Automatic annotation (TrEMBL):
Transmembrane region(s): 508-531, 543-564
Region (Disordered): 469-501
Provenance organism: Actinoplanes aureus
Protein name in the entry: Insulinase family protein
Gene Ontology MF terms: metal ion binding
InterPro entries cross-referenced by the UniProt entry: Metalloenz_LuxS/M16
The UniProt record lists the keyword Membrane: yes
Length: 570
């Protein structure tokens, strides 16, 4: 049974466990709270707060998630007290001398992290704000200062914004949890980068993924289980198209939840996997759900909850509920809500989820044939301003105006408005990357645009200073330079124009030479043709010879005519 109490003014849930005592201190702050320009600041606080513990002889760790940051430990009571009190002491006075080192550790950690199969969905659904920020690298690390960290801790890591869970017989003696005073911070409001839903976008060639935002309730959790079973049966057992099939349910602090699903695919089978995936979603939307499937999932969830109650693993979720303003739910209440879910309840969730769905299709496949609308991947509007042509591509240009910046080319455009800018990545060599709230990016390499370096001060002046995110210097080899243009085909030199005197002399000479020849050959040719007609014998040779003389006369006639025209034009 879970008991509610307070420790040091912090709301606490206490429950029994079958194993060693474990406890955790959670704060209502996560990746979704970070502005993109400060991406990574919460994770950095977590690392700094844990530095002093080094290599302890008990298990401890910290974690930063989308909405929460928590520190947890397992062991003897004295170790738990030492750890949790130590975390609070560190939060009150972060070891700033470790700032540079911990930043490097976080960069190394990020470098080894791979993107999950459903991670891109959050970016396309939410853009570069709140729940979409989690998909971006921790770009803000370079520019985070000690003052930034103190302000972040003072806002989010406070007594009023914390909750505690303890799995054990009682609260350990000596637990003080000294934290600054603040206020409870609600979960961020969800933004949307999708003008229409259901929507789709193209992703990697080896996976199909989907998600939807629905109300947070037991029947939605059951639907995620029913969906996973249906996808597994269709795509693995029956068709053999996929190896890994998964669906999940993730509650949020604002009363919503995200249902997500994915299935892997061979590139040559991507169309078949997409078709099977879409068919399962469509069947669920139409209510083609078996009551036996619902019962099976309910029974599985019931068993999981009962086991979690015994080992204390329900406690973290209940602490999260406290921070979200939701009541602590006893096991009996949770089981009763779960067992009340019917087939019709699950069908209703399926219909709602389909209407809100976002589908990631594999490779270059599309899903408009299935009723999904393509999510926007470019901008409809271009800013009014000065055009800076590309030094490489005549079809590409950057347009900078008072209200924003655009890149246009290849029949599309990307625009970021300065008043809707989430961050500007700034490199020392002058490169800039503008990221809009909708996730659209405009990259500017000053070396690749005409008068590019002269534009940098004007661009920097139009963006709020807090959005500027300094980036580490780039190696010189990574700074692009314009590619040399291909050599033009050789054009023959134009002929020298004739001089007036040279042209006249040539024309006169032509008349003097060609006129007598014209008269001689013309007269002989005519006489021979007349003679051939009058003479009935051996006319063939005379005709041929006469025509030959006339051919020479005609050729001379063309030369005489050209000479006369040239003389008339002088």
């Amino acid at each position: 049974m879970i008991t509610q109490l307070e420790v040091g003014g912090i709301p606490t849930v206490l429950g029994p466990t079958t194993g060693p005592m474990h406890a955790g201190l959670v704060f209502r702050v996560g990746f979704a709270d970070e502005p993109l320009a400060k991406r990574g600041i919460t994770h950095l606080v977590e690392h700094l707060a844990l530095h002093s513990f080094g290599v302890a002889d008990y298990h401890y760790n910290g974690a930063t998630s989308v909405e929460y940051t928590f520190f947890h430990t397992r062991g003897a009571e004295a170790d738990i007290v030492k750890f949790l009190n130590g975390v609070c002491a560190a939060l009150n006075d972060l070891p700033m001398h470790r700032l540079t080192t911990e930043k490097e550790i976080l960069r190394t950690e990020e470098n080894g992290r791979s993107e999950g199969p459903t991670e891109a969905l959050a970016l396309w659904r939410h853009g570069a704000r709140d729940y979409g920020v989690v998909t971006y690298p921790e770009w803000g690390l370079s520019g985070i200062t000690p003052d930034d960290l103190r302000a972040w801790v003072g806002r989010y890591f406070t007594r009023q914004n914390a909750a505690l869970w303890i799995a054990g017989p009682a609260v350990p003696a000596g637990l003080q949890l000294t934290l600054p005073t603040g206020r409870r911070m609600p979960a961020p409001a969800q933004s949307s980068a999708l003008p229409v839903r259901p929507a789709y976008f193209s992703g990697p060639s080896n996976v199909v993924a989907w998600d939807a935002v629905v109300r947070r309730e037991a029947r939605a959790a059951v639907f995620s289980g029913v969906l996973e079973r249906a996808l597994f049966r269709s795509l693995r057992q029956e068709s053999g198209l996929s190896y890994t099939v998964h669906a999940g349910y993730e509650p949020r602090g604002d009363g919503s939840a995200v249902i997500s699903a994915f299935a892997d695919a061979l590139p040559e089978k991507q169309g078949a996997v997409l078709g099977g995936f879409v068919d399962v979603l469509a069947s669920a939307r139409l209510g083609l759900i078996d009551q036996a499937e619902v019962t099976t999932v309910v029974n599985q969830r019931t068993e999981e909850l009962t086991h979690a109650e015994e080992n204390g693993s329900r406690l973290p979720g209940q602490a999260f509920n406290l921070l979200a303003g939701r009541p602590v739910q006893s096991l009996d209440e949770a089981l009763a809500e779960l067992r009340a879910v019917t087939r019709d309840d699950v069908a209703a969730v399926a219909a709602s989820a389909f209407a809100d769905g976002l589908l990631m299709t594999p490779g270059l496949t599309s899903a408009d044939w299935a009723g999904y609308t393509a999510a926007p991947n470019s901008s409809d509007v271009v800013v009014q301003g000065t055009t800076y042509p590309s030094l490489e591509d005549p079809a590409l240009a950057l347009i900078a105006g008072e209200s924003g910046v655009s890149v246009v080319g290849d029949g599309s455009a990307a625009t970021v408005w300065f008043d809707q800018c989430a961050a500007v990545l700034a490199w020392p060599d002058g490169a800039r990357r503008f990221v809009g709230h909708d996730g659209i990016q405009v990259s500017f390499e000053p070396t690749l645009f005409m008068n590019g370096h002269a534009l940098i001060p004007a661009l920097d002046a139009r963006v709020r200073p807090e959005l500027r995110t300094p980036m580490p210097p780039r190696d010189a080899a990574r700074i692009p330079i314009p590619r040399p243009k291909p050599p033009q085909e050789h054009q023959p030199a134009p002929a020298a124009p004739e001089t007036e005197s040279g042209g006249t002399a040539g024309a006169v000479l032509g008349l003097v030479v060609l006129s007598p020849i014209l008269l001689f050959f013309g007269l002989i040719g005519v006489v021979m043709l007349i003679s051939a007609v009058a003479d009935s014998e051996d006319t063939g040779s005379e005709v041929i010879l006469g025509l030959s003389f006339l051919f020479v006369a005609v050729a001379c006639g063309f030369g005489v005519g050209k000479a006369i025209r040239k003389l008339r034009n002088r």
